Amino acid sequence: MQSIYNLDEEELLEYCLNHNGKKYQAKELISWLYDKKITSFDQITNLSKEMKKNLTQDFCLQTVEVSTVERSKDVCKYLFKLPDHQYIEAVLMIHDYGLSLCLSSQVGCNMGCKFCESGRRKKVRNLTTGEMVEQILLASKDIGKRISHVVVMGIGEPFDNYDNICKMIKIINHDKGLNIGARHITVSTCGLVPKIKEFARFPYQVNLAVSLHAADDKLREELMPIAKVYSLKELFDALKEYLKITNRRLSFEYILLDGVNDREQDAMNLVHLVKGMNAYINLIPYNETTHLQFKRSKTIQIARFYDILKKNGICVTIRREFGGKISAACGQLRSQKEGL
Ligand code: SAH
After folding, report:
1. Taking a C-beta distance cutoff of 8 angstroms, is the pair 24, 183 a contact?
2. Going by C-beta distance under 8 Å and a sequence separation of 6 or more, which residues neighbour residue 21?
3. How close is the Cα of 191 to the center of ligand 1, in Å?
4. Which of 64, 88, 215, 256 gives 270 a disulfide partner, CB atoms 3.0 to 4.6 angstroms apart?
């Protein structure tokens, strides 16, 4: 039986019409599912008995379960269990401007970035649209508050699960449902060039973040296998096209790895690469993981790197850290749970 959260408005409408329902009932159903967050179709008061029976026969209202939650003052880290006994994770961050959920897009990841815990383990499968939507519903229920921001930066490469991601965005953006503003949704990619071009034409004003981590081809190829497929020149041509079409600001993620990509020369390469673009750089202090040998840059080196960018007129921030103490880095909780 399939999850009802896989269906967008058009599909719910089609279902209603095929089951002697009315056109307006699709929107009502969306409000019951995402605003009132029903746990049984019987809780719906304005649908016929017949329709509720059909819905109960045809759809699940919950397929994902909360396995464990680690809590600290401003962050909750969820380990979710999927129907096929796979595990994924999501991190809820409590900001002064609202609640932001970092969710997973795949079980595992095939991109193989050398510093990343998820990349160390291969992709098992894509998440369905419903499984991504449910991460938001479950975290929101757990904390008892509305989630206002979503970032697709958990386990997986979202652009390797492109269609399901786009459908998920459509569903969580719906104004009768979760109503999460497109400008409050960010998708992060390691740089799948054809999908960046496609995303430029996706008709929602979603933010795009690109994991850069190196500003020259040689180093980037050592850290990120995807760089062997798409050179920085190809990546930046696609990003310039994206900026031209969308008129939106891009963000770049740059993890600082001790002695690897945090030298003065690396900062200068980065300046030359992004200078003049409508973009800002998010410097990420590396979250060390037991299985991988990379170390976080020294605090003084992070400050130096930041200063070089700043002095050269680049918009730059150092990412505030939420997850470090509770192993909230991209797949670490999943690996602990599975003992792998
Ligand atoms: N595949 C996508 C999204 C998931 S990774 C992407 O590559 O953008 C989200 C971000 O976390 C990426 O920038 C990734 O490089 C970074 N990341 C991975 N492991 C990390 C770690 N141990 N510490 C800090 N950031 C990490």
Report:
1. no
2. 15, 47, 48, 51
3. 12
4. 215
Tell me what pLDDT residue 329 has. 52
Low-confidence ranges of the chain (pLDDT < 50): 326
Distances (CA, A) of 282 to 50, 186, 232: 53, 13, 18
CA 194–ligand 1 middle distance (angstroms): 20
With CA atoms as reference, report the closest residue to 296 among 327, 268, 261, 251.
261
Instruction: State the pLDDT at residue 121.
Output: 78
Nearest CA owner, ligand 1 atom 4 = 153
By most ligand atoms within 8 Å of CB, the mutation choice from 102, 106, 239, 330 for ligand 1 is 330
For ligand 1, atom 5, name the residue with the nearest CA.
Answer: 153
| Catalytic annotation, residues | 89, 330
Phi, psi of 153 (to 5 degrees): -135, 15
Question: Residue 58's pLDDT is what?
Answer: 97
Residue 42 DSSP SS3: helix
Residue 318: what pLDDT? 94
CA of 330 to the centre of ligand 1 (A): 6
In this structure, what DSSP letter does residue 296 have?
B
Q: Where are the beta strands (DSSP E) in the chain?
A: 2-3, 59-60, 65-72, 75-81, 87-95, 98-102, 106-107, 125-126, 149-152, 185-189, 207-211, 250-256, 279-285, 315-318
User: pLDDT at position 328, please?
Assistant: 53
Reduced to 3 states (helix: H, G, I; strand: E, B; else coil), residue 124 is coil
Q: How far is the CA of 165 from the centre of ligand 1 (A)?
A: 17
